[in-house]
Structure to design on (762 residues):
């Protein structure tokens, strides 16, 4: 690992914390103020509530909140699907693209409603500008805001005592969209634009190359979509090769900013949570646990990618870093990012449930590619998706507190609330449902002929492709070992994985929040397990590794580990 | 339930119009006014004709030009269909592709670089890029090609080297990313030099 690489990563961590902390405090204010913003902004906000016929001051209990989330998501699913199918007859289609095939449209609908952004399609040659901008990108805002809203509801459940209500979904949705996602997106979008990310309604450009050939150059309304795709832990790009494409990510500055955007809101939400439950030290410990796992991932992925793949080492070409090259495993990576930035990106994008890629994960080395896989398998709680990351982390926290309680023989407490059988059930369901589903779906996909048809690479790597596909979709990440191909079978199975993977934990989290809201708080005693010290960090990381890590280990041995040991 | 459905349908329409049409339209308008070059794809014109984009590789086969990295798109350097190669780290196809690329480079550059072996070929020269349209090569690969280009064009090596320097994007702000030589811009500069 070069000094330059380490320095870039350290700067990344410092800038991330420096931006996330104040943003977290701001977000707490956005959600807790009865009235927020200037008067004209409040008037617009009230206008929206009038349109959707809600009284912003009337709150919902967890069941009512969950019902609204589900109905809203189903209604939007219908529109997302319809626009893809009808794009050939609609406007903003300068390159005359036809309707998206039904199974791809189904998978893509699930993908964008659930904040996954798995791409079984090549954006620039499948989706019209209208579909990209008014369909998929709208979901990049909305699915992010739904996750943020649900998180705030769950956090209210932790903060309140003897309460039933968790908040008003429409208020939480609106404020996430308008006061958090929109300003950040416009700022980032304009900066990206200034660096070379296109934003135009004109169709593809045509060029006569220096050697006299004709080249068609795809473009479109890209910049704004890339900003929200990064900020909302979405990951679905305008172009097939995603953030590796220079039109999405032209240089070192954009790469750095897009990298910051991946983790910014999930990191800020940890501090927001600390402020809302009045437990800032505890929030720092949660942040520390996330950061430790993140740093460990970088520490594995970076040197293994720099070391190079078996094929490249055996080939005899020069993979040594220095003298004008970054060396290492440059397969499916871009020169302007090199190894350090691509490895950092791969780790960040899979810790968060972002899933955008700046290099091809399928071509990563065995262990370098195992880091993103493992990150996703942890359940997208290491920062995780906007909202969904932290509410997913609460499952592990409750389990950790429970285990600590068992060890000292006291009733477990969290933030002054006694954890009972009901809470443990919700937490266990939230933590274990998705990993179990991943293993089942992967098994199904490799024992059936229709499943095997999607596998691209031979041997153990092919198994990893399938494992990665269902891990990524079930956990709503959306990155891929992109050789894994779309068939009707894999597209439909993936759609099921994404919907269940999104809404099962979401409902478990709301139920947990609802259960905790109804409890009274008791002051901490000497027997209370402290959640604001380093012991808690160790315990929390341990619980994550033991629960999810042990579940995936047998599958890892069949894929990356076998491949890593082979020549 | 019906209440939620009615609210949802209204919200879906409002959000789609505002976030999917109004805001992107406003930003696009601003982009076309303030950053027209970038907003339209950073296209490069030579003698009034668009010859490419500074952000997309294009095919170079003639020995008088610097060549790009290999591309997995179909056809190669398709800026309307980006893709990875997706070949795993132990895939025999990857080994075959790398060997083929290396052989071609040895054949092309060998005559201008006496004693050239496969160990002198930088890895980016034989591997596909992520996008398939990576507009850049490493400074090491540019250096390897510089003697051929200078000889074919009857230019002093020092001039070719200084043109490489002129068209190298160093780390942004001296810090982020890796140094990268923009091949299209370099080749345009070479053509201007000769003319």
């Amino acid at each position: 690992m070069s000094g330059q690489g380490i320095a870039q990563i350290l700067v990344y961590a410092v800038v991330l914390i420096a931006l996330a902390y104040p943003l977290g405090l701001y977000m707490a204010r956005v959600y807790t103020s009865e009235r927020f913003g200037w008067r004209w902004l409040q008037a617009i906000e009230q206008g929206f509530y009038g349109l959707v016929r809600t009284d912003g001051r009337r709150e919902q209990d967890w069941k009512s909140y969950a019902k609204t989330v589900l109905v809203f998501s189903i209604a939007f699913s219908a529109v997302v699907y319809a626009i893809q199918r009808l794009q050939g007859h609609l406007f903003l289609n300068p390159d005359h693209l036809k309707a998206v095939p039904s199974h791809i449209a189904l998978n893509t609908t699930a993908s964008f409603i659930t904040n996954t952004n798995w791409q079984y399609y090549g954006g620039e040659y499948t989706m019209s500008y209208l579909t990209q901008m008014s369909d998929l990108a709208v979901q990049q805002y909305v699915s992010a805001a739904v996750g943020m809203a649900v998180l705030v509801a769950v956090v209210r459940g932790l903060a309140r005592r003897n309460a039933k209500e968790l908040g008003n979904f429409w208020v939480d949705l609106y404020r996430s969209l308008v006061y958090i996602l929109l300003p950040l997106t416009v700022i980032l979008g304009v900066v990206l634009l200034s660096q070379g990310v296109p934003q135009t309604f004109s169709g593809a450009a045509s060029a006569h190359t220096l050697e006299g050939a004709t080249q068609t150059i795809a473009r479109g309304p890209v910049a704004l979509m890339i900003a929200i795709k990064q900020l909302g832990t979405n990951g679905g790009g305008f172009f097939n090769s995603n953030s590796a494409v220079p039109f999405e990510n032209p240089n070192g500055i954009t790469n750095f900013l897009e990298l910051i955007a991946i983790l910014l809101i999930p990191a800020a939400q940890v501090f927001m949570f600390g402020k809302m439950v009045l437990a800032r030290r505890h929030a720092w410990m949660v942040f520390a646990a996330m950061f430790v796992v993140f740093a460990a991932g970088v520490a594995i992925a970076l040197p293994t990618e720099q070391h190079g793949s078996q094929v490249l080492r055996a080939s005899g070409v020069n993979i040594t870093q220095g003298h004008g090259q970054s060396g290492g495993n440059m397969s499916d990576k871009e020169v302007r990012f090199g190894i350090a930035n691509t490895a950092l990106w791969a780790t960040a994008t899979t810790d968060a449930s972002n899933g955008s890629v700046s290099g091809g994960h399928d071509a990563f080395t065995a262990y370098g590619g195992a880091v993103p896989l493992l990150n996703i398998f942890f359940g997208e709680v290491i920062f995780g998706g906007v909202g969904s990351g932290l509410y997913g982390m609460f499952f592990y926290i409750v389990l950790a507190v429970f285990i600590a309680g068992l060890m000292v023989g006291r009733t477990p407490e969290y933030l002054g609330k006694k954890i009972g059988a009901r809470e443990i059930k919700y937490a266990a369901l939230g933590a274990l449902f998705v990993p179990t589903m991943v293993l089942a779906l992967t098994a199904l996909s490799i024992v059936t002929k229709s499943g095997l048809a999607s596998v691209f690479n031979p041997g153990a790597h092919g198994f990893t492709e399938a494992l990665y596909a269902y891990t990524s979709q079930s956990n709503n990440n959306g990155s891929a070992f992109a050789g894994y191909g779309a068939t009707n079978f894999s597209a439909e199975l993936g759609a099921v994985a994404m919907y269940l993977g999104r809404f099962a934990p979401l409902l478990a989290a709301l139920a947990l929040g609802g259960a905790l809201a109804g409890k009274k708080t008791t002051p901490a005693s000497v027997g209370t397990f402290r959640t604001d010290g380093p012991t808690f960090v160790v315990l929390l990381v341990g619980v994550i590794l033991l629960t999810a890590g042990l579940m995936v280990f047998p599958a890892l041995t069949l894929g990356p580990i076998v491949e890593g040991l082979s020549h | 339930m019906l209440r939620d459905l009615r609210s949802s349908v209204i919200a879906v329409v409002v959000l789609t119009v505002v976030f999917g049409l109004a805001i992107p339209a406003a930003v696009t308008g601003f982009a076309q006014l303030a950053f027209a070059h970038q907003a339209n794809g950073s296209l490069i014109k030579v003698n009034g004709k668009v010859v490419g984009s500074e952000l997309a590789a294009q095919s170079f086969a003639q020995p008088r030009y610097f060549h790009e990295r290999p591309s997995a798109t179909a056809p190669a350097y398709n800026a309307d269909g980006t893709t990875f190669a997706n070949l795993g780290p132990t895939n025999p196809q990857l080994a075959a592709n790398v060997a083929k690329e290396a052989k071609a480079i040895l054949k092309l550059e060998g005559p201008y670089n006496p004693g050239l072996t496969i160990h002198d070929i930088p890895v980016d020269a034989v591997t596909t890029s992520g996008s398939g349209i990576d507009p850049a090569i490493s400074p090491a690969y540019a250096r390897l090609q510089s003697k051929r280009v200078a000889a074919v064009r009857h230019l002093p090596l020092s001039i070719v080297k200084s043109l490489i320097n002129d068209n190298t994007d160093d780390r942004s702000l001296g810090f982020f990313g890796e140094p990268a030589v923009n091949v299209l811009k370099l080749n345009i500069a070479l053509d201007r030099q000769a003319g």
User: Anything to note?
Assistant: Strands of chain B lie at 43-46, 49-53, 136-137, 168-169, 180-182. The first helix of chain B runs from residue 2 to 34. The longest strand of chain B covers residues 49-53.
